[in-house]
Every structure is written in structure tokens, then in C-alpha cells.
Amino acid sequence: MHDMLCDYILQKTEGKATLSKKERQLIASSFISRTLKKKQYFLQEGDVSLYHGYVCKGCLRMYRRDDKGQEFISQFATENWWIGDRESIASGKASKYNIDALEDSELLLITKAGFETLTQSIPALQLLTQIISHNNIIASQNRIHAAISYSAEEKYLDFLCTYPDMIERLPQHMIASYLGITRETLNRVIKQFK
Amino acid sequence: MHDMLCDYILQKTEGKATLSKKERQLIASSFISRTLKKKQYFLQEGDVSLYHGYVCKGCLRMYRRDDKGQEFISQFATENWWIGDRESIASGKASKYNIDALEDSELLLITKAGFETLTQSIPALQLLTQIISHNNIIASQNRIHAAISYSAEEKYLDFLCTYPDMIERLPQHMIASYLGITRETLNRVIKQFK
DNA sequence: CGATTCTTTGAAAACAGTCAATCTGTGTGG
DNA sequence: CCACACAGATTGACTGTTTTCAAAGAATCG
């Protein structure tokens, strides 16, 4: 599992960074592994998010619930994605989000402090953090544009282009929740394309 | 103007960083200043965004235009905000965004290369970048949640809470464009509260 | 002033949401 | 292996929020 993480780091940093044996060992000893069964929570609203999670295997979702109990998914995470409520991790305050497993999953976890220490001593991780943040910001930008300017149909097509692999893996109503439309509306959009 | 930037850096890094005289000089020599008249473009779609812009004074907006010519604002930037199309700056590709001044404005500009060089030699800037990225991601997260889950009324109230100072400074129809609702709808929402 | 730009208002239309019921597939326990 | 439960998909009829279109009023600026 840790090898997968190291490979991922090297791949993401595009040859601009290396990992020595010692660094690999340091990484391996800093992350703890956790398995989650389908439907099991990684984080529940009201709790403080303590770990950044790297997904080795499986699929998770992060979502918020409104006062009527309706769920709104803010993120999916499959292999090689990170998950966790950054705001709660950084501030130490209670999270507004829930994170649970949509499939049986395997994660590697690291605390805020652990990650900071690690980043200090491993340049590759420093770089990785920058790259991930950068990509995250750009992706968010695009998602915001989609959310405020696209029709239900356009939102679906955009999702299809952006995350083609996710479609077959996620139940329809969760994609709807991610897009900010109802399952019925999404279903009608999809029906059109057959 | 450069002093303002330095003060801002120290303030944002919350005492965790310092700036020597040499570093201040280096910063001053790395940014170039630019003034923009109201309505003047800082970036037009199709062009490559070359600079990160730090706003010393004034107010700008970043927006995309759809095929029907409708505008969707993805960001406002007032004093002490950064603006620029990160995607275009990073990739060197044509931007899909426009950026123009809503008021007469003063910016400090720096190229991608300039910023990278500067960051390497000034730890405070390295830290600043991390903090800004972090805050940006959290703010985006919140905005996405608002966009996919709130009604027109809730969107407005959320904006009011998040950016209370902006309200008086921005024309109503631009706030509507930022929220992803029509100016008529926003106007009706506001009328309710009087 | 005249000319934009911005706001306000009304009426009609469209899109998406809600409610409710049925259908499908899947998996689990007896 | 069947029966049942459960999660998810599908469909129809209705409702409602928001958009669209159009026009008229403020406000601002050169």
C-alpha cells in the first residue's frame, strides 16, 4: 500500500522529484492504514477531522446534510485521491461534513502534524502538495462555473467528460447529488441520450 | 505600493514569517505596477494570462462568457486579493476568462517565472502561497456547496455573510452573475428584505 | 442635460423539483 | 434455492421557483 503512495508521488511530480529509500521508509512509517467496509463512516459531522486520507482502493464520498436531511455531495474519492475536511483538520473544529465509503476501501491516513513534519523533510512531498493544491483550485474553479452556468443537461455532460470512469462506478442518484440536481431530473436527462 | 504588499504578506503569515530589508527590495524589484481604468481589461479570453496580479487598490472581476454572450463571474478581487487565471498562467494556454476593472485600480504584477524564483528565495512567500491556496480551497468548497444546495434567497444571504463589505461596492446584477441567478430574481429576493 | 448603466416591475414560459407509485436488480437469510 | 427486503432506477402528474421577455424608472456620468 505504501509503495502505491510512493509511486503516486513520483508520478504526480512528473520527474521533478525523487524519493530515496530512507524517505520511502519515513513515509511508510508516518501513514497508518485503515480499511473501511461499504457504508462505513470515515468522518461524521460534528466530529473533528483528524486525518488526511489517501485512497489506495475503493471509493468514498464527502457530503453535507441540510436541515431537511437532504444530502449534497461535495467530493468523490477513488484510487489516488485524497479525502478529508481540510477546514476541520486545519482548525481543529467540528466538521460540517460526512465522509463514508461507497465501496469497501483501503486508506492511508496521516495527521496534520505528521504531514507537516513529513513535508519539511521530504522535498517531493512539498512539491506534491503544491501540485495537488494547484489542481484542486483549478478543478474547483471549473466546477463552480458549471454549477452557476450550466443547465441540468450540460452539468451531466460536463461530468461525463471530466470523470468518465466514475459513471459506471457511482449510483445515479449520487451523481445527481454531486451536480446539485434531483435524481429524477438526472434520470430524465440520461433517458434523452438513448 | 510595494510596502502594502509586504505588510500584507506579514499579516497573512501571522507572525510565522519575516521579511528582511533585502527580501523587501527583492520583492519590490520583482513586481511591476499597473494601473487600470474602470472597464479596462486585465485579461481577455483567448489571450494567455501572463501575470499573477495583486490588487493594491480598486476592484476587478473575473468572468466567463457563454455561447449566448451571457457573463458568469467566477471571482471578484478587491484590495489584498490576487487575481489571474491560474490555469492559463500555469499551462501557457489561451484563457477562457476575462478580467476587467470595476473601479480604477492599481495592481502589482509578477510573471509565473518571477514568482517561482521569488518563492525559492523568500520563505515568507513560500508560506504565503501555501496559506492562500489553502484558504482558496476552503472558500471554493463552501461556494460549491452554496451553488448546488441553496435557493436564490439563501445564496444571497450567504453572500451577505461571507462578503458584507462587497455589497455596497458591487452593482446588483454582478452579484447575481456571481451567484448564478438572474438580476431580476436577485432583485426580487432583495425586495423581500425591506 | 443626453446617454449609459443599473434597478425595478409585471406577465408568461420553461425548467427543474416534488410527490407518489411502480419496476428492477441485488443480495441475504431462512 | 426461494422469498423477502432493500437500494436504486424509472415514470407520470403536478407544483413551484426561477428564467425570460419587455418595458419603464432611477441613478450616474461625461
Gyration radius of chain A (Cα, Å) is 18 Å
Number of helices of chain A: 8
Strand/helix succession of chain A = HHEEEEEEHEEHHHHH
DSSP summary, beta strand count of chain A: 8
Beta-sheet strand percentage of chain A? 15-25%
CATH class of the domain at 2-121 in chain A: Mainly Beta
* Superfamily (CATH H level) name of the domain at 2-121 in chain A: Jelly Rolls
What gross morphology of chain A would you assign? globular
User: What structural class results from the helix and strand content of chain A?
Assistant: alpha+beta
Kindly, what is the distance between the CA atoms of the first and last residues of chain A, rounded to a whole number of angstroms? Answer: 41 Å
Helix content percent band of chain A: 40-55%
CATH architect. name of the domain at 2-121 in chain A:
Sandwich
Largest interface: A-B, 26 and 26 residues
Oligomer: homodimer
User: What name does CATH use for the topology of the domain at 2-121 in chain A?
Assistant: Jelly Rolls
Give start-end ranges of low-pLDDT stretches of chain A. Answer: none
Largest sheet of chain A: 4 strands, antiparallel
Neighbour order of strands in the largest sheet of chain A? 1-8-3-6
